Amino acid sequence: MKVSVGDVVLPGDFSEEIAAVGEKGKVILGPGLRKEVDGIYITKAGTLKKRAPNTFWVDNYQKRYIPARGENVIGIVVQKAGDIFRVDVGGSCTASLSYLSFEGATKKNRPKVVNGDVVYAKMLVASKDMEPEIVCVDSHGKKGRLGVLEDGFVFKCSLNLIRKILNPECPLLNSLKNEWPFELAAGMNGRIWIKANTMRETIALGNAILGSEYLSNDEIKSMCTNIASILAGHIS
Amino acid sequence: MAGLTKNMQLPKSVLDMKFMKKTRERIEKELENTQDHGSLYSNIITNEMRSASGNFISESSFIFCETMLDGRLSFKGMNPEIERLMELENGDKTEECSGEMVKDVSDDILAKKMEKFNKKRPNPNPVSELKNTKRKK
């Protein structure tokens, strides 16, 4: 069926709109779109979205992570294999993380990473046919925001929720950030790591994040004030 | 340099020499290979493949489609290191938005003050002018 931007789309649908834009200039086809010889076809069920000037993608509900280059993910070290760590990122196979791709690591000075550690890393190589590779440094060799996540609490959620809370227009983090001190790392693979000073605060933060999945912006705001007041002890 | 040597061909008179036999054979082989190349895949490469334009860029990640914050955040001093990075990033953004710094002294007042200042010193830099004239000579 022919579809246009904003429609609910199914795999096999095609879009003449995107093909027409493609004849004039460059078009970026995001996830869920594929170029065939005779047109642009949808490969996922969701809503077709567009960002000006020429980026198209399908926004779909998904819990299975498919590694993609450049994404920040949260992984759990499951094995030490010689020069590399095997890290479970939730994809079809484990990702490899070289022990040299940590800040300040050399052959003699190995990073202190053990099985079960949680790492926040960037996808360096992600291809269909190969094991993905992740790194904990940027191109300058600095760790930046990547590295081993100590303490805290990890939970899983849908990939959509990650995108929702990291959207600059989402009020969740803005309404929580002045309430109590906390730290958060959201991986594009549907894992969130949170850390707060007390267990109550950690649970409150986790519930706030998970609860915001199907709420509108106004509802999120009221939920956050509600949670904050419960935590402050105004309501028991 | 390598490109130049590749494109250059030895003159025929040189190739005809006795000791150039192996080189001559090699060059003939290379020529054959390049000529066969087109016909080798002619049944696989369709016209559509030739005419397919490269206007479509496939991107398998949402991070290039949607605007998103960085995934590592810290608030109210939980992790000062991360907060410093966040401030640096936000600082860049706010400066880009406003374009100008907040002024303590308005432009008008500054202009008046500067006028007074210039009147007091009619020739603010006579030494450098002298130097300039000397150089010109």
List keywords for this structure.
heterodimer, A: 236 residues, alpha+beta, OB fold (Dihydrolipoamide Acetyltransferase, E2P), Ribosomal Protein S8, Chain: A, domain 1, 3 domains, five-stranded mixed beta barrel, four-stranded mixed beta sheet, 5 helices, 22% helix, B: 137 residues, mainly alpha, 7 helices, 2 strands, elongated, disordered N terminus
Describe this structure in words.
The complex is a heterodimer of chains A (236) and B (137). Chain A is an alpha+beta fold. Chain A has 3 domains: 8-59, Beta Barrel (OB fold (Dihydrolipoamide Acetyltransferase, E2P)), CATH 2.40.50; 72-149, Nucleic acid-binding proteins (OB fold (Dihydrolipoamide Acetyltransferase, E2P)); 153-232, 2-Layer Sandwich (Ribosomal Protein S8, Chain: A, domain 1), CATH 3.30.1370.10. Chain A contains 5 helices and 16 strands. Chain A has helices spanning 16-24, 159-166, 171-176, 199-211, 217-232, and strands at 8-9, 14-15, 27-29, 33-36, 39-42, 46-51, 55-59, 72-81, 84-88, 95-98, 118-125, 133-135, 147-149, 153-156, 182-187, 191-196. In chain A, helix 4 (199-211) packs antiparallel against helix 5 (217-232). The N and C termini of chain A lie far apart (54 Å). Chain B is mainly alpha-helical and 137 residues long. Chain B has a domain at 2-46. Chain B is built from 7 helices and 2 strands. The longest helix of chain B is centred in the N-terminal third of the chain and has 20 residues, at 21-40. Classes of the chains: A alpha+beta (236), B mainly alpha (137).
Concise synopsis of the structure shown:
The complex is a heterodimer of chains A (236) and B (137). With 236 residues, chain A is of the alpha+beta class. Chain A contains five helices and 16 strands.
Largest sheet of chain B: none
Instruction: Please report the number of helical segments of chain A.
Output: 5
CATH class of the largest domain in chain A: Alpha Beta
| Unreliable segments of 5+ consecutive residues of chain A | none
How much strand content do the residues of chain A show? 25-35%
Rg of chain A computed from alpha carbons, rounded to a whole number of angstroms: 21 Å
Helix content of chain A: 10-25%
